Amino acid sequence: MMYFSDKDFRKEDFITSVLDTGEYENCHFYHCDFSNQSFSDCKFIDCVFSNCNLSLVNFTNTALQNVQFIDSKLSGIQFDTCNPFALSVSFKKCIIQHATFFQLKLSKTLFEQSDLTGTDFTAADLTAANFDQCNLAQVIFERTILDQANFTTAYHFLIDPVANSLK
Fold it and tell me: What is the pTM assigned to this prediction?
């Protein structure tokens, strides 16, 4: 497995080339297009994706540890296929439409100024998650742990208090 550290990737088109399977630590990806690519078995630690298109990327067994997504498109991603060990992500000004976070532990995750239309959080643990200024239209919350989650500035959401934990 290849190892990359402290590397910047700028305006790279991974539609025609493939991101090497490997470990990426403290790497920054700016204006890269990864749509429909595979991150399977990759490990991202302390990485930032800014202004990237990650729509329909395959995250099977991908480790995401302290990864920030900023101004990026992440539509249709099945995050529930990620490696759950030490999973830690944050999203700012992202489009995360029709993604799946089924059964993931996402305590204290920050979703800021993002569009999560149609995203599925079934059976996820979102304890103390913050949905700051997020569009939650058609988001699925079912058997979801939402204890201390902050929806103060979120909008278009519907949460069944009987089908979810809301302490």
Answer: 0.96
